[in-house]
Amino acid sequence: MIKKLPLLSFLSFLFFNVSFSQDRYEDSIKGIIEKDFAQIKPEDLINLVPYETRKGAGYLNSKNNKTVLKPKYHQLDFAKPNLKGNYDNTSYFEIDSKTKEVKVFIQNWQIFDDSSVWHEPISKGYSRGFYVVNNSIFSYSGTYSYCPYLFKYKNEYFAIAVKDQKKAVINADGETRTNLNFEYAALDMINLGNDIIWFKYKTTAGEEGFINMDGEKKLVNDIISSSRSKTEGHFSFIDTEHSLKINYYGYSVESNDELSGVLDLLTMQWVIRPQKALKIEEINYASNSEVEEKYNLEDRAGLKFYFLVRDEKKQTSYYIDDKLRRYLPK
User: How far apart are CA 179 and CA 114, in angstroms?
Assistant: First the structure.
């Protein structure tokens, strides 16, 4: 026992020094951030718009485009309503929207063990439709090319099924929905929540557009051909557990290799029509209240949305609004 004391003492000393060093480092980063944001009033945090340069990220004031934070940060988000950002790729911070209190966090990647058991769905040649157990398909008809894609609509299970390279929406009995039978070469679901579901479709005859669960079609042959739909984004913060999922609240970035635009999936109207001039990559928003944890489309009216544009020639990015106003630092 006596021989172990020096080792225990050494380990305790080492742990104390590591902890002490990290605390000192966090305090030093906190001091830098407090100094950088000293001239920004709490009520002005909602007006901050991130911008990027080759040196890093900074903030400008959306009211006058004046730079209020130099581009020496790694990544910055809009106020929601607290302000979150990444100082140097390992040090993260959060500024309280009311008191401007700064909290600093050191990156701590966490790996989560997924102990859930997954069972391979069973294909049965004699069955119809599909059978659900514990919110997943247990078995399905052998007439489909592979296991259908399951989703829920108004508390009822439906699925996208494929047969002979044609897609359709079916219920558990294998019955197709109106105007959603096996005549689609592409049928990509966009679930906005609140039982609002659209499918971006392409028929075997070449018609393209959007169709909902009632079989109503919109923007027929008025979409970006072979486009990708992006309805949510991501902001990395501290670790896996604390990173933020950014919902686009019914907006979608529609793009292919040549064109991009922003579509409002609630009104089915183009906010920014498809064009080559602007390469729109993401959508973000500022908010005076916390809305991420209780995502609801009804909150959309209280949010200020911005659209991230990538300038490939200058290798930088900047935000615009729905009026195409550019937020570039003066």
Answer: 39
